[in-house]
Amino acid sequence: MRRTSGLFTHSLFGPVLKIFFRDGKMPSLVNTEIEAAVKGFLIDQEKMTEVVERMTKEIKMGLAKDTHSRAVIKCFVSHVQDLPTGKERGKYLALDLGGSTFRVLLVNLLSEADVEIVSKSFNFPVTLMSGSGKALFDFLAECLSEFCHYHGLENESLPLGFTFSFPVQQQGLSKGILVAWTKGFSCEGVVGKNVVTLLQEAIDRRGDMKVNTVAILNDTVGTLMSCAFYHPNCRIGLIVGTGSNACYVEKTVNAECFEGYQTSPKPSMIINCEWGAFGDNGVLEFVRTTYDKIVDKVTPNPGKQTFEKCISGMYMGELVRLVVMDMVARDLMFHGTSSQKIQERWSFKSSYISDIESDAPGEYRSCNKVLSELGIVGCQEPDKEALRFICEAVSSRSAKLCACGLVTIINKMNINEVVIGIDGSVYRFHPKYHDLLQFHMKKLLKPGVKFELVVSEDGSGRGAALVAATAVKAKL
Ligand code: BGC
């Protein structure tokens, strides 16, 4: 990654792109009224510093026993105390629920250099997201069974790591109580229950495989573990995808909600921050806009996951759509007319933001494609510039807030060098996200603190297998 003034070279995904950070500076074709409408998304250095301060306070509250119950950033203990050594071996199954797809994986840790992963993504019927818990877990077990039979694994007693990417209060590596659903899920009868039991019961009900669920983990933890397998200095796992969250390695003595925090012989514990809930107590109002409030109201969990709703892929597209609809209503874009499609809630996918921002300045190839998918015809260049400007405002705020979160964690850990393992569609596919994150982190961190942002491959596969391996070892 090389940097020149204002121009960044980004070579993570395919062709090298020259990127200019406009950071809310208006391109000449964009109307001043549109600029005023997106102003709320532009957070300056002072506000970012304030976010870091407030988040630091909330993380400390989540960790401490006395304040944990009323803290919004819960800082759940993951019960994962061992980072990978690279010597873990064996065959494990993994389930991955909570991102854009549901997957079943078979992971064979053959050697440090040789990890075989076979996986299958299953179509996840949307109706399951709000149906009964039993229907959900029966579906997971059915997919697992199909996968096991296809690969001739039905008679093998394989340990399974369950990547379940929701706020879970873990009481052990294989016991986790769902605290709340996020990301549009609202299945009945699961909140307050041990999800490992629910999954295992569904597997056992079928009676056609010998799988044993040995561990439950958050996707951030899988991401950290997977990255640490190759980068021993990895201490933070971050997801910026459908949802957003981070975990990090804390000193066990600071993890007060872990029963053995004073006596454990192991010096560290991975903490699943659940930072998505930051701001649920109102402390983030100074970075929220009226559009954020509208998005919040139409979600199944209003008033919850405030930070996540400003950052993650599930909501970014809808934020852009709401701004655009407002501009159309005020006759500032598209000659005051839109299409049926764009009037539908959630029709503006967050991937459109990545597409639109991938166009080189002054070119509109991807933008035209998006507009045509949305059924919007006859756009002029100023409309396209305005659309890009709105996308940039929303994605930059996301990256800035994420940078604040990472800086908060690095400061809390009080370390001078760290590798951060990252996964999620926004980070992977947005053409500038990595550079924006890096740029703003550098501006916020104390001088001399070094960090590296690394795409973490297969957290929910290799990461889940590594946590399952820890669980199996602990039981021996
Ligand atoms: C969940 C987290 C998860 C994150 C990223 C959030 O909605 O609460 O547990 O890590 O999404 O998938």
Summarize the structure.
This protein has 16 helices and 16 strands. The protein has 476 residues and is an alpha/beta fold. The chain has a domain at 11-57 and 279-455: Hexokinase, domain 1 (3-Layer(aba) Sandwich), CATH 3.40.367.20.
Strand order of the largest sheet: 4-14-13-12-15-16
CATH topology of the domain at 11-57 and 279-455: Hexokinase, domain 1
What is the global morphology?
A: globular
Largest sheet: 6 strands, mixed
State the separation between the terminal residues, measured CA to CA: 45 Å
Counted by DSSP, the helix tally is 16
CATH class of the domain at 11-57 and 279-455: Alpha Beta
Account of the protein in words:
The protein has 476 residues and is of the alpha/beta class. The chain has a domain at 11-57 and 279-455: Hexokinase, domain 1 (3-Layer(aba) Sandwich). It is 40% helix and 20% strand. It has 16 helices and 16 strands. Strand 1 and strand 2 (7-10) form a beta hairpin. Helix 11 (350-358) runs antiparallel to helix 12 (365-373). The longest helix has 33 residues, at 381-413. The radius of gyration is 22 Å and the shape is globular. The chain starts with a strand and ends with a helix. The model is unreliable at 1-20 (pLDDT under 50).
